[in-house]
Amino acid sequence: MVQWFWHTLGEFSNEERVLFMRFVSGRSRLPANTADISQRFQIMKVDRPYDSLPTSQTCFFQLRLPPYSSQLVMAERLRYAINNCRSIDMDNYMLSRNVDNAEGSDTDY
């Protein structure tokens, strides 16, 4: 299963890799400094039906994969998930947070 995953990721386009990063971490790219990476990437096998979609836990940088019957099925399900599950977007959250902090920095307390 892990070999299938890395083979699939190797076949992804750059755009799909960005979507994958957002799916598993909530961000479209890794930090520039490796010391800023607080979690190691984990692939977890989950006991779910083989036709289920993969899931992720962005806080823990985890990808949860059901026991797919083939690498092709895994690739199809993973592509579907990364293209259709975009509910967490830490990039825009961090941008708006930085703007809010910058706007409030001129205020005297």
TrEMBL record:
Pathway per the UniProt entry: Protein modification; protein ubiquitination
GO molecular function: ubiquitin protein ligase activity
Domain HECT positions: 1-96
Alphabetically ordered keywords of this record: Cytoplasm, Phosphoprotein, Repeat, Transferase, Ubl conjugation pathway
Catalytic-site annotation from UniProt: 59 (glycyl thioester intermediate)
PROSITE patterns linked to this entry: HECT (PS50237)
Enzyme class: transferase
Record EC number: 2.3.2.26
CC terms in the record's Gene Ontology section: cytoplasm
Chief place of localization: cytoplasm
Pfam family, one: HECT
InterPro entries reported for this sequence: HECT_dom, Hect_E3_ubiquitin_ligase, HECTD3
UniProt signal peptide: none
Annotated compartments: Cytoplasm
Catalytic activity, as annotated: S-ubiquitinyl-[E2 ubiquitin-conjugating enzyme]-L-cysteine + [acceptor protein]-L-lysine = [E2 ubiquitin-conjugating enzyme]-L-cysteine + N(6)-ubiquitinyl-[acceptor protein]-L-lysine
PANTHER family reported in the protein's UniProt record: E3 UBIQUITIN-PROTEIN LIGASE HECTD3 (PTHR46654:SF1)
Name this polypeptide is given: HECT-type E3 ubiquitin transferase
Source organism of the structure: Micrurus corallinus (Brazilian coral snake)
Higher taxonomy: Eukaryota, Metazoa, Chordata, Craniata, Vertebrata
